[in-house]
Amino acid sequence: MQKDFINTLFSAKRRKFLGLIATAIIAMLVVIGLQTINSNLVVGQSNTNLLISVASSMKDVMAEIKPLYEKSQSNISINYNFGASGALQRQIEQGAPVDVFIPAAKTQLDGLEAKNLLIPGSQAVIARNRLVLVVANNVSGMGSFDNLSDRKVRKIAIGEPRSVPAGQYAQQVLKELNLWNKLKSKFVYAKNVRQVLASVESGNADAGLVYATDAKISNQVKVAIAANETNHSPIIYPLAIIKRSKKIDASENFIQFLSSEAATAVFKKFGFILP
Average pLDDT, whole number, for the chain? Predict the structure, then answer.
C-alpha cells in the first residue's frame, strides 16, 4: 500500500510538472504570435513614398493621375520631380534618390542604361506626342515654317537642344527644312518646354516649338502648324526603374497602373497618343 501511495504521489507531481511546462510553452507561443501580428500590422500600415522624375511636358497629366493611383494604393504616396529630361538624367547620375524616370525621349534612358543605372527589363513606352509651332491667338499668316524667316518674327522660343528633348526635336525639324542656320539669331533658349510655352504666352517670343499637349492646355496660344513626323525622331515617353531604388515592387505597381483604363483615359484627355 505504501508503494502504491508513493507511485500516486510521484504521478501527481509529474502531471503538475508537465502542466507547468505546457503552460509556459503556451504562454511563449502567445507572446511570439502577438509579436508576429504586431510586426505584420506595422508592415501593412507603413507608407511607401515613391519619387518619380518626369519630363515637364507631362506635369498636368501626371498631376491628375496621382490621386487616382493613391486612392487605389492607400499605402503608397507619389512625389514628382518635374524638369527638363536632360537635367533629370544628370540628377540621377549624381545619385538623386529617384525610383522611376519618365523622360520625353529615349536618349536619356539610353544614357542611364549605358552606365548600368536601370533595372534590366523595366523599360516601357507609355505615350507619344507631336511637335507643333505655336503663336499668340491674334497672330495670322504663319501657315508654314518658312514664315519664321519673316522680319516680323523677331524671337523664336525653343528648348535648349543639349538638355530639352523638345529642343532636340525642334532642331531636327528646322535642320531638315534648311532653316536652322537662317534662324539661329532669333532663337531664345528655354530650360524646359513649359518655359517655351510661357515665352509665347507672355509675348517674349513671337513663336515657339512645343508639344501638341502643351498647346492644348493654353488658351493664349494657337497651333500654327504641326511638324511633319518624318522630319524628327519619334516623340515618345519611355520609362524605367532606377537600379538603386529600394522600392522595386511599389515602382512596378505604379508602372502597371499607368497602363490601366483609369490612367489611359487621363492621357487621352490631355492629348497624348497611346503607344
Answer: 88
Q: What angle do CA 199, 129, 257 make, to 5 degrees?
A: 115
- CA–CA separation, 251 and 100 (whole Å): 7
- Burial (0-12, 13-18, 19+ Cβ within 10 Å), 128: middle
Of 205, 206, 208, 215, nearest to 174 (Cα)?
Answer: 208
Rounded-to-integer distance, Cα 75 and Cα 41, Å: 12
- What single DSSP character describes residue 99? S
- Taking alpha carbons only, the member of 113, 89, 92 closest to residue 245 is 92
C-alpha–C-alpha distance, residues 88 and 163, integer Å = 9
Alpha-helical segments (H) within the chain: 2-45, 59-72, 85-93, 106-114, 165-176, 180-183, 193-202, 212-216, 248-257, 261-269
**Cell numbers at residue 88, please?**
533629370
> What pTM value is reported for the model?
0.78
- Which pLDDT tens digit goes with each residue over 108-118? 999 999 999 99
Structure-derived torsion over alpha carbons of residues 60, 191, 179, 108, reported in degrees to the nearest 10: -80
